[in-house]
Amino acid sequence: MDSSSLTCKKLTVITVLAVLIQVIGLALFVLGFFPVKPALSGFSGVEGFYQPGADSAEFQNTTNLSESQLKYLYQDLSLVPPLFDRLILMVIDGLPAEFVLGKDGQPPQKAFKEAMPYTQSLLSKGRAIGYHAKAAPPTVTMPRLKAMVSGAVGGFLDVAFNFNTQALLDDNIIVQFLKVGWKIVMHGDDTWLKLFPGMFSRHDGVSSFFVKDTVQVDQNVSRHLVDELGRTDWSLLILHYLGLDHVGHLGGRNSVLMAPKLGEMDEVIKTIDLNSLPTNDNNQGRTLLLVVSDHGMTENGNHGGSSYEEIDSLALFIGPTNFGSTSGTPNKANQVDLASTLALLFGVPIPMNNVGMLMAETFKSLTGMMDLVEQEVTIVWKRPFVVCI
């Protein structure tokens, strides 16, 4: 009886210990694989234009300033005069940069290059600056959009949130634009509506989970294009096309639908470029077209990991004549560099948690700024200051 009782006690103790070990092991795995990254609260303001350690007494009180007054104050404090007045952000979901810029010094595949003649002409004429913008894993849409607008690196926990996107509460370039009175319009992937609820003057969202749809999902975006380009009531127009990513999921990189889809995107770029130039009639101002992709894709069209094919995303800046270089040599950057670069191009503070650097080629058209862009420019991660070293 005693021996049997002792055996039961041992089994109970062993079972409890085994459960505790499993719980502790699971907790260590979760904390290690899904670490909680500390983030600075609040939003960047005038202090973002001063060097670290500057006397806070020098900072101007902006509490009672209007949006336009705040905008001009930021422009006065910035070392870089704003190059553009409006931004068109075109996101081509899943587009590998090598489809447009080539790889390892070689041009893109013939079929892909011939599918985008207008885009290739912009590069050859010095109208565009192309970057292989390295995306950090996980290479799924929601964390990649957050990285582009905040300049902060996410974690693998974002994979779970990708299916149940929550509002982005950290400092980001969208909020900074709103603070200076920008009106923002969005058409495309409804992930934007979930990340930035109530921030768009107009919007038409489409779901990204109907992967068999490669046609209507993009037509729902393009149907607004001509009308929006003729309007003057927005400063930022976001167009997020999902069709190319869906083509990849259905048939991989070499799908028979890939070249036609690239041709469709080329026509969109052509339409934007030909219809968004400043004129005296509509007083639209100087417009920058930025074509980006959130991630690339593997040979069979999948993404989410850290292979070269998945992290090779595109950043293509399209501006006026002589904005880029006719050398045609693509540049390299990180996807998180977009937030700081856009902040300086448009004269707003760099987001608080930004870890990106400047994409220096985009500033070479600035008169008298060659000394700045030829130096290595880095961003102090704790505070959004530009430091030239």
From TrEMBL:
Q: Does the keyword Secreted apply?
A: no
| GO biological process terms held by the UniProt record | GPI anchor biosynthetic process
- Superkingdom per UniProt: Eukaryota
**What topology does the record note for this protein and the membrane?**
Multi-pass membrane protein
Keywords from the named record: Endoplasmic reticulum, GPI-anchor biosynthesis, Membrane, Transferase, Transmembrane, Transmembrane helix
The protein's location, in the record's own words, is: Endoplasmic reticulum membrane
Query: What GO terms are given for molecular function?
Result: mannose-ethanolamine phosphotransferase activity
Entry's PANTHER family? GPI ETHANOLAMINE PHOSPHATE TRANSFERASE 2 (PTHR23072:SF0), PHOSPHATIDYLINOSITOL GLYCAN-RELATED (PTHR23072)
Entry protein name: GPI ethanolamine phosphate transferase 2 isoform X3
Q: Name the gene behind this protein.
A: LOC107831564
